[in-house]
Amino acid sequence: MRITEHPILRFDRGKELSFTFNGQPMKGYEGETIAAALHAAGVKVLAKSEKLHRPRGFFCAIGNCASCQMTVDGEPNVRTCITLLREGMKVESQEGKGRLQ
Amino acid sequence: MREVELLIIGSGPAGLCAALSAAESGARALILERSFRPGGQLVKQTHMFFGSERQYASHRGVDIAELLLKKLAEYGERIELMLNATAVGFYEDNVVTVLKDEKEYFKIRAKSVVCATGAFEKSLAFPNNDLPGIYGAGAVQTLMNVYGVRPGNRVLMVGAGNIGVIVSYQLLQAGIEVAAVLDAAPRIGAYLVHASKLARMGVPILTSHTVKEAVGTDCLEAAVVWALDEKFKPIPGTERRFDVDVMCVSVGLSPLNELLAMRGAEMKYVPQLSGLVPLRSENCETGIPGVFVAGDASGIEEASSAMAEGWLAGLCAAAKLGYVPADFEARRREYLSQLENLRSGPVGERIRAGMKLSLLEGGMRDV
Ligand SMILES: Cc1cc2nc3c(=O)[nH]c(=O)nc-3n(C[C@H](O)[C@H](O)[C@H](O)COP(=O)(O)OP(=O)(O)OC[C@H]3O[C@@H](n4cnc5c(N)ncnc54)[C@H](O)[C@@H]3O)c2cc1C
Ligand code: FES
Questions:
Q1: Which of B81, B76, B121, B78 is nearest to B323 (CA)?
Q2: B298: which of B12, B197, B209, B293 fits an S-S bond (Cβ 3.0–4.6 Å)?
Q3: What is the C-alpha separation between B55 and B62, in angstroms, rounded?
Q4: Which of B195, B244, B186 is nearest to B215 (CA)?
Q5: Which residues pair with residue A41 across a beta bridge?
Q6: Rounded CA gap, A90 and A47, in Å?
Q7: Are B203 and B180 in contact (CB under 8 A)?
Q8: Where residue A61 sits, what CATH number does that domain have?
């Protein structure tokens, strides 16, 4: 789900990166956020809410609402909409507040 | 604890201009930006800006950000830009706590502070409004214009103000279908040039309509909308279903300024400025001496006025620190008159009224 042709914008994607989402291997590009890479790969549900376990996706994409928090390399509550993807990252969806590992 | 002269929170147009302005006077500034990329909302604006020549009208927002960042580089040793750094607390004696890289946590004490934190997108209440696939219009703009990722295949846009209409147009440019644009108001809020572009491309704009509910289990699958009467009450029987995988909520922005409230600045609800705003002087100084506000954080306007306020706040914050250039008064007058021009005429009427309501009376308050 990437835009390849655009009348005014050109997307110079960086190096291809590998990461995992809930253990599954995924690809993304250098220079994009974790949330953007996941969305491009068709992953929209990033977390489950704390009480009712409702699915959560991103909402603001600017680091303001906490809707996109996931566990990244064991660290819970990472705002994936403003955190850049890195090679080998271990990204996991999070239930509620997440747990320190 | 690190000590700085001037701390600027936020690197959108307001924060960048405040830094440039203060540096021009000789002050040293540290800018905190929570994102890994400076420029605030400008970086996703691919359309030509309206406004006046002084504020780079008819440039694309993304190019304005580049222009400002180039200028910033010229002041290399006087301006430091710290990215991935979120200001999370603002305490007495201007101590700001910072979360860096979602890991480190430390304090900075500043002699003067400019809060230029921008705004956040409002949400709308309807059943299932939390389903993934329902995003702020600005978020969708970021996804497609900054990262080149398709938000989905078919979009329902809620809100026919400038942002809703511009983002709809940008969706079409990216090859994504826009099923319809809704607005609860009986009239389209956006500038006519933008709205008529959409109409020409066959996108229906449904005024006096709102969302009844979103449908879907894990993600958005459809949205049911209905018509509103002249009292904004839904009319049963007018329901229509749109099969969409994305809904953009573009029902306005609210100023983002909790940090100032936390610091003890006196806040007031001013509907004309779209929410709670700090009371301030005409120089953008809040009731707390040395603490300034600029841009959308002081009331929702536009990038052009955010830049003019940034220049003014930076100039006056530097002056507070003792950096008073020979042409201080001339510069101050110039920025004030730019703001007056931007807020003139019938379009600026609301903002003018809001400014009057948020003006600090009776001088400074000690905290
Ligand atoms: C779709 C759309 C179209 C627009 N079109 C136009 C137009 O044509 N012409 C025009 O003049 N204006 C336009 N605007 C409005 C313009 O983009 C904004 O008014 C302007 O960007 C506001 O500038 P700002 O510096 O106040 O805030 P922002 O640009 O929002 O910048 C605030 C910055 O502060 C950072 N920040 C926030 N909180 C913290 C914190 N606690 N710690 C660290 N950093 C923080 C944010 O990450 C952000 O980078 C448009 C806006 C949108 C969304
Ligand atoms: S989507 Fe709002 S913080 Fe990430």
A1: B78
A2: B293
A3: 13
A4: B244
A5: none
A6: 15
A7: yes
A8: 3.10.20.440
Assign B61 to helix, strand or coil: helix
CATH number of B2-120+253-357: 3.50.50.60
CB contact under 8 Å between B138 and A62, yes or no, is yes
ipTM of the complex: 0.95
Contact A35, A91 (CB under 8 A): no
Q: Which amino acid, one-letter code, is at B319?
A: A
pLDDT digits (tens, 9 = 90+) for A47-81: 999 999 999 999 999 999 999 999 999 999 999 99
**Joined tokens for residue B157:** 């846009």
Q: pLDDT tens, B216-226? A: 999 999 999 99
What DSSP string runs through B246-264?
EEEE-S-EEE--HHHHHHT
A75 touching chain B per CB within 8 A: yes
- The residue assigned the tokens 């690190």 is B2
Instruction: Identify the CATH class of B123-249.
Output: alpha beta
How many Cα neighbours within 13 Å face the side chain of B95? 8
Phi, psi of B185 (to 5 degrees): -75, 155
Q: By C-alpha distance, which of B308, B266, B264, B258 is closest to B283? A: B308
Tell me the residue range of the domain where A84 lies.
16-90
Contacts of B195 (CB under 8 A, 6+ apart): B160, B165, B188, B205
Q: Domain extents for chain B?
A: 2-120+253-357, 123-249
- DSSP structure class, residue A61: S
Q: For position B252, what pLDDT does the model report?
A: 93
Residue A52 forms contact with B (CB below 8 Å): no
From chain B, the residues in CB contact with A83 under 8 A are: 36, 102
**Residue pLDDT, tens place only, B253-285:** 999 999 999 999 999 999 999 999 999 999 999
Q: Do A36 and B174 touch (CB under 8 A)?
A: no
